[in-house]
Amino acid sequence: MAEDNQGFKMENLSKNDVTGNGTDHVDDTENTGGSKDDIQDWIQTNFYKKECVRYVPSEKTKDRCECGRTEKEHSRSGHSASSHQDPDSPWDSKVDIERETTDTFGNVTFTNNGNKAKYVRLADDTNPKLILELLRRKWKLDTPELVISVTGGRKNFKLNPEEKRQFQRAIKEVSQSKKTWILTGGTNCGAARCAGKAFVAHHYSPRQFLTRKGSATYIGISPWGYVENTDRLLGPHTGQNEVTYSVDDRPIPRGQPAPLSPNHTHFILVDDGRRKSGGDLQLRLKIEKALVQENIPLVVVVLEGGKDAIDHVCESVQQDVPVILCNTGRAADLLSKLYKGQEPDTEDARMKDLVSQIDIEGIKQICQIYKEFFTDFDMTSDMSNAIKDALTNDDVTNDSQEKEKHLKRWIKRKFKKMEANQNGSTSYDTIRDQSNLPTDAFGEVTFVPSVEKYRNTAKYVRLSVDTDPEPIKELLQKKWNLPDPKLVISVIGGSKNISLKPEDKRNFNEALKKASRTTSTWIFTNGTNCGVTKCVGDAVREGQSLKWMNGKPADTINCIGISPWGYVDATDTLVERQDTDGIRQVEYYHDKPIERRKPVPLNPNHTHFILVDDGRKAFGADLLLRPKLEKSIFADGVPLVLIVLEGGEDAINHVVNSVDQGVSVVLCKNTGRAADLLSHIAAEVKKLKNTESSRDISASDCEDIIQSTCQQCKKEDKGMNQLIDTLNEKEGWHKICKTFAKDDGLVTVFEMGNQQVLDMNLAIMNALLFGQHNDTDKQIYLAISWNRVDIAKNLFVNTTHVRVVEEHMTKVLLQDKADFLQLFIKHNAFDIKDDALAAIPLKNVYQEKQIFEDMRRLVINVLGRKRTVRRSQTNTDENVANLRRDVQKILGFKPDNYACSMSQRSIHQKRALWFLELFLWAVISGRENVAEFCWEQVEDPTIAALAATKILRLMLSFERGLDRLETLRDTISKYESRATGLIDECYRTDKKLARGIVENCHPHWKDKTTIEMADDADSIDFISHPCCTSKLDDDWYGSLVPSLNPWWFIPLALTVFLIPVYNLLKRERFVLNFKPPQPGTPRKRWHRRVFSFLQAPVTKFWIYTISYVVFLLFYTYVLLFRFDKELQWIDFFLFVWIVSMVFEEIRVIVPETKSISLKKSCCRWIKDKWNKMDLVMLLIAIIGFGLQFSDATHEWARTLYAANSFIFYTRLLRTFAVSSRLGPKMVMIQKMIVEMLLFLSVLVVFLVSYGVASQALLYPNQQPSVNAIERIFFMPYFQIYGELFLEEVVDGECAEEGTEMCPNQHWLIPIMLGIYLLLGNVLLLNLLIAIFSSVYEEIKKNSVKIWKYEWFFLVGEMKDRPILPPPLIILEHVYRICRWPFQYRRKQTCASNLSSQGIDSADLTIFEQDCASCYIRRVKKKEELNSEVLRCLQTLKMS
Prior knowledge:
Blueprint (H helix, E strand, L loop, with lengths): L1 H5 L29 H11 L1 E5 L18 H7 L15 H4 E5 L2 E7 L5 E8 L4 H11 L7 E7 L8 H17 L2 E5 L5 H13 L3 H6 L4 E8 L15 E7 L20 E6 L9 H13 L4 E6 L3 H12 L4 E4 L3 H10 L9 H9 L2 H10 L4 E4 L5 H8 L9 H15 L1 E5 L13 E5 L3 E7 L8 E8 L4 H11 L7 E7 L8 H16 L3 E5 L5 H15 L2 E2 L2 E2 L4 E7 L19 E6 L18 E6 L8 H14 L4 E6 L3 H12 L3 E6 L3 H19 L7 H15 L4 H13 L2 H9 L5 E5 L5 H15 L4 H10 L3 H10 L7 H9 L3 H9 L8 H13 L1 H15 L12 H16 L3 H5 L7 H19 L2 H10 L3 H18 L3 H28 L1 H9 L1 E2 L5 E2 H7 L3 H4 L2 H12 L11 H6 L7 H5 L19 H10 L1 H25 L7 H21 L8 H10 L1 H19 L6 H17 L11 H37 L7 H15 L5 H6 ...
Parallel strand pairs: 3-8, 4-9, 5-6, 5-10, 6-7, 7-9, 10-11, 11-12, 15-22, 16-23, 17-18, 17-24, 18-21, 21-23, 24-25, 25-26
Antiparallel strand pairs: 1-2, 3-4, 13-14, 15-16, 19-20, 27-28
């Protein structure tokens, strides 16, 4: 027994280490809501104690007062018998117990285990909200995520070790993941003591107690009069005290006070002025009710118990609190039997005594009504699962069956039904004769027979007419997972079978579908299969069949029927059965005929049903709940519009109430009855207000309107006349007129039959936008949601100084609504000049989940690293910033040039760069419309289009979806054609400025030129454009005259090896001419002219070509004539030549600038096919040279040299790229080789199949050998080329005499040979020829483009080459290495690059933008022309 009271020892902890909830430091005044004086003042201001002020001896115990205290205790407290004016009057608690400011609160230290706890004494009628404020604000407890209320016996009942272990483990597991409050009686006996033992087991050590994530706070709510040694809690002075308290380890006698449990963290000592138990129950129930009202999950656990425990449980289940009944005896077992419908065991004396103390029939009825909230628990099983199951939280489990159980229990807690009481009364009263019981009708209904293909299943629930709207909204949004509504359309009208003209019905359906499809919409009807509701159901059916809009999934139309339970047919099929555990699944027949004054079936085209129950089998229950629900949704800021078709008195009342609340109403005129009547009144009121707007409508005006309406609307229609008579009897005319006079645009009349469907849709939108007095932001939001840019344009026309918030801009960008973006920019509605404001949409669009993941995948695939940021709730901004930098790095966009220097830029530059980054985001995320508009606004549209082409090609390289691949290819072609078309427009306008655009370098693209960006984007069309090729011509010839005959360069190039060229270059009449110098520029000296000649790429090309030819001559000579075992000088000379070539390749790989990493440079180098060939041939050459040093490997060296000669000679094809005729042929050969390899993969299948079969018949039972494997491939391969080996295949002759094995003759072999040749030689080879022909024709069409593209790379390669060729190139390498530490490279700026050509950068930008405008106009005009031609062709085809 001793260990039960010890808990965990804390003697070694300081005072500040002891907490109540991990954050509640006892002596830390800062963490307890302020100083001790502040807390003391707050407690003494809000809390009171109760004292008996008169001693009156009890009739049962003469030595005690009626309050339970002795006379000595009265005198000690200052209250005696003489303190009352009438000592002979009977004792009355209301008179003799008075409230006084509490003087008992502070911190108590239990000497048994060193645990410290907070306590306070307060009156039993204290407001529970003050107690919660004390716990959370003053004592700094975290708001709980779960509350476990342990109730039960106060006696010393015991649990066996296994039961004790299960209970302790359950408390521990539940509170590990959630912040938990555990409420108990607080005393060291009974159920409270069991909970205290769980406290001991839960807190393993003081350190874990202080640092745990999920935590349990044990709060004892104890009766002050039943606590032992309360005088110890008073302390030495009045106010907050530090006291000690000892607990004796002894049984508590019956009826005696019990000590506090030393294993709690907080105590609420409830004082009712008596020295008795039971005063704490009512206050505890109030505290639990306040917690439940805050939507904090609460569960009651019952351990044994008596009458108080039963009262606690009955009050809790009526507050929809789940209860766990542990099989521990008395109250727990009794309640378990009662809710199951079983009789209690009266043979047990303790049970019989308990039954005699309670109203067994009343308790049984409560248990039967709320049986869904009871859970039995066997103390030998896992209690933590029982607690989780008892809580109605859908997130507890992912199992669908468990979720259904939780949803079922939640619905039964939140919603009631109404049933009539059988009291035998002759008169009926709705309050007296009805009772609210947990609902028994909810689930999913399947409509049969079902002819609708789109959907025939709906969810439904039955609830009482007085249900609060909040749980209904929670059911719709959280439990039934409906998206938050952006628009609510409530359709009311005639419940009979009204008839609309086919054209009117079609127009109404189209308008309703269009209004609901443009945004997430809820449609309210009365849900029955007749009247207006049936028309709405037909529109919903048509709308649901259109699942896709413009290739994108459309929002589902959620049609919610709010129907009267008593007026719905076959409701008995919807009621829950006793044998069902989960959600009810029922079949419902809806095709029954409609009879007058009979219940009607539900409409099969609705998605959800709310069946309103008022306890009667009549119509009208929905008319009470539906307006409340609409009012609650409208109060949440959701746009609501009421559409009226036909209708009666109920429709008129609904309209009047809605207009009073500020809801927009659309009256469909010419549909009959209420709609026509209200339309006429609205028109008369509007006419009167237009003529005399300065005064209000008087009573005489109302009379005139009434008279005019009656004369206009009275017809032979019986229903209209009855409606007018009803209004006359109830005097409802004046209310309608007054309401419509105050509406100020809320009522919109739409005349059916005279306008197009677009007009009705526009009427609905205008009623919402302008009728509900929305501010401009709300109107813009609605226009964006409905995708009505025409409405937004009217806002900007009619309103001045319209500003668009960043949320609207973000929404426009994410939804790819470029027309709204253009409208906002045009009217300066979004301030791009404000750096902080302009950056918000760019950050928000990257935060969208799907876009973030797509860009993250792009960064991982392109940059080749897995360190990319992960999207989280804690550091989203940081992750987005990192992602943007990574994307900018991929594009070559300077990360800090836009963000850091925005404040230093002009407004025009800010605008251009803002559009540039937005354009790149739109291209990556697939927002084509936004990308198109932003491209038109950027400062440099040419390089922007090339950047888009580059990033899209990167995305294409790792995309796997076929649809996405096709889309990316189309977008790549689009932007490549835009860049090419724009530079063509510029070139035709001004060739010099167009050349400036191509050669211009851009600071925000890491100083890349436009043609370099085209190289990164692999844009063949752009590079092959005449504007770019003219630049390549200049680069190719350098300072030389391009018209020079190229064959003169061969002897001139040889002079590098023979003689100086001074005399050749000194004479101007020599055939080699230089470009004339610029005016004012001195003529170059001879050594500068020599250097210019040698620096020209054309000179380098011929020098390197001649050098390579000389190398091949040396290589061929050594291989054929001097490849001896003894190495000679020529072998070493040849090896030095090869090594010089290796050094040159290394120089090319090593990056010259820090902007390019070595890894990236290597990847770029290895992608080139010629570099791959260089790598292979140089490695083979070096290995072959090394093998020459050994006689054993000399023949291997010869073999490698011989094989490598084939590669060396093939490498000579690279020089053909300079020829416009041979260059395209090289591309043909390359593509044909790729196709041939694919062809071989098919050919190998036939080759191996025939080879294995033929060898098995020719050489049966042969031994495994290499020759056998060779014969499988050797003979079939050469048979394709005509070497048929008929001597072996047909005659069976040995190929050579003396061979051990000779082929066998077999009749099947010639047949297989014929089939093989037919497939391989005839079919596959001709297929290969056809493929080659296709490749040839394809490249022939684009031969010039391909040659210019290959020539571009050759020019770039030659520009970077040193002047001296191998092997002399080693000298230049040595020179560069020696110069490197001392060199200083002055970076050429963009300005100097353009100024050398006499071009101003500002003029160039203006020129490019002007040409872009002309090009865009021409493209749009062409697209309009094509559309017009297509429209005309379709018209002719239809005619």
